[in-house]
Every structure is written in C-alpha cells, then in structure tokens.
Amino acid sequence: MGRLTLNVLLSFAQFEREVIGERVRDKVAASKRKGIWMGGPVPLGYDVRDRKLVPNDAEAETVRHIFRRYLGAGSVRELIGQLAADGVRTKVMQTSAGPRGGIPIQRGALFHLLKNRIYRGEIVHKGTTCPGEHPAIVPKPLWDEVQARLTDNGPDTRGLPHRQSEAMLIGILHDGHGRRMTPSQTNKGAKRYRYYATLGLDPAKAEPPAWRVPAHDLERIVVQRLIVLSPASRAVANPDRDERLVQLLAEAFAARDLLLASPALSIKDIAERHSLCRKRFAQLIRISWLAPDIIRAALDGRQPASLDATQLIKADLPATWTAQRELLLPAA
C-alpha cells in the first residue's frame, strides 16, 4: 500500500512540474509578443534598468561603428583584425564570480552582433519578430545595408542538396583534456585533408595546446575497434572465444578505471558510490591485473578449456604474472 501511495504522489508531482513548465513557457512567449526583454546576456550597446534595456550611449556608438566598419571591410575576417587594432572589446558583465567579458570580439560573436535584431528595437521569439519596448540604436538604412552585405557574402546554397558531414565522430570526440573536438579541413590543390581539432580555446586563458589529429587515421582505428567488439564479428572471427570470459575481462578493466579515477577512496567507498558489490568489485580489480598474454589468449579464443568466467572470478590469483601463467595456463 505504501508503494502504491508513493507512485500516485510521484505521478502528481510529475504532472505539476509539466504544468509549471508549460505556464512558464507561455508566460515568456506572451511577454516577448509584447516586446518585453526577458533577460539573458545583455547585448553591447545597452544596460539594464528596472529589468528593461536602455541605451548606453558610448557602447551604442561602438555598435554603430562596428556596423559601419563592416561595410568598409567587406568581410567578417577582415573586420575582426580591424576591431582588435581599434581596441574594441566585448561587453564587461559583473557576475557573482567577478567581471566577465572585455575580450576581443571573435567571429561567432561578431556574426551574432551584426544579425541581432535587438539593435533595431525588436524582440525575436522562435522566428517571430515583435516590436520591443527598448529603442533602436542602429538606423534602418545602415541595418538594411549590412544585412544585404551579409547575404551577398554568405554561401549560395540555393538549389543545392543538403550535404551531410563526412566526419563520423562529430559531436562525440574529446581530446585528452576533456575538451570537445570538431571536424576541420584544409585543401592543397585538388586534395582535401580532414582533421579533428580542439574546439573553442579561450585566448585569454593559459590552456594546453589544441589537439589536431588526422580524421582518416582516427576513424579507421575506431572502425576496427567496432568490428572487433561486434558480436557478429566475434562469432565469425573467433568461434572458440568464451564471450562470458571476455565480458568478465571488460568488467574488470571498467572496475580498474573507477579505481584509478578515485585514488583517494577505498575499494569499499568506490563500490558504495557506484552501487556495486564490494566483494565482486575487489575480485574484478584483481582480474584487471592479469598477465597480458593470458588476456590475449582469452580474446583470441586460445585459452585452456578449463579457464572460464566462473573459474577466473573464484581463483585466488597470485600477484606475479609468472605464477598466474602457471595457475591459468598450465603447460600442455
């Protein structure tokens, strides 16, 4: 009866969360249709007073200067260098962690600034533009001229089919420091070279150098590993391999990774943190330090018939590899 009551209460709580979420979204949409600024990063050229955007005269002139310089430069790449030479920086925001911003304007931020309809006194919500409560700081002729130049300089994709990226690891690859990696390419003559490179390094921070690896070599290694791990390929390539034994080895290496990731914790603490059986976790740790030739024999299906997952998990494994070979790989 207690479980039933708990499930009913959880259902009502979930329903209440969904209703609150819908009301918040409806409130935001209704406010933006009225032209009310609903918060977020304050754009360069404005300050916030009483939750409303009010022009900052000095920054507003900087915004108009950027728009005019773009028409003279002709491209965003040239404009970035000119603005850096002029000392133009992003807006400085005061946060709980201290000042943020005040860095040279980069390509993405510059494109966003040149296309931001807030500067025309408008609010955009899901593709719909509404008149805003705040005044415009960029005159309409200058705005229209800049938008026309952006359109002319952009890629002409009309009538072309959508070409999907050839990068098979896009969105899932990280470098050795945990930073996302993104596909990139260079052309030399008629040949194209693809790479994966570390994404979004902050020039104001002292970070390790960006990684850049050839895409073809990395993707080939990944494909080979997937083929090895595929259950179908295992059955064809290694019909004598004990899959339960291989799975046990995989669990052992995963357990060792957990142990190495928390050197300050005991085996008991790590097992409790990950809801694992302490005894089995300790057994898996011992298995993870098996001699390399024993592991290779198991992966290749060359292990003795007596060596299976049950025997390995129960075995009192010696610490030395020589003694492990004598125990698990007796001479024929």
Account of the protein in words:
By secondary structure, this protein is an alpha+beta fold. The chain folds into three domains: 17-153, Putative Large Serine Recombinase, Chain B, Domain 2 (Hect, E3 ligase catalytic domain fold, Alpha-Beta Complex); 181-227, no CATH class; 238-328, no CATH class. The chain contains 13 helices and nine strands. The chain has a three-stranded antiparallel β-sheet. A hairpin with a 2-residue loop joins strand 3 and strand 4. Helix 8 (243-261) crosses helix 10 (278-287). The chain is elongated and about 90 Å long. The model has no long low-confidence stretch (mean pLDDT 82).
Give me some keywords for this one.
332 residues; alpha+beta; 3-stranded antiparallel beta sheet; two-stranded antiparallel ribbon; 49% helix; 12% strand
End-to-end Cα distance: 62 Å
Q: Kindly provide the name of the CATH class of the largest domain.
A: Alpha Beta
CATH superfamily of the largest domain, by name, is: Putative Large Serine Recombinase, Chain B, Domain 2
**CATH overall fold name of the largest domain:** Hect, E3 ligase catalytic domain fold
Low confidence ranges: none
Number of helices in the DSSP assignment: 13
Strand order of the biggest β-sheet: 7-8-9
Order of helices and strands: HEEHHEEHEEHEEEHHHHHHHH
| Fraction in helix | 40-55%
Mean pLDDT: 82
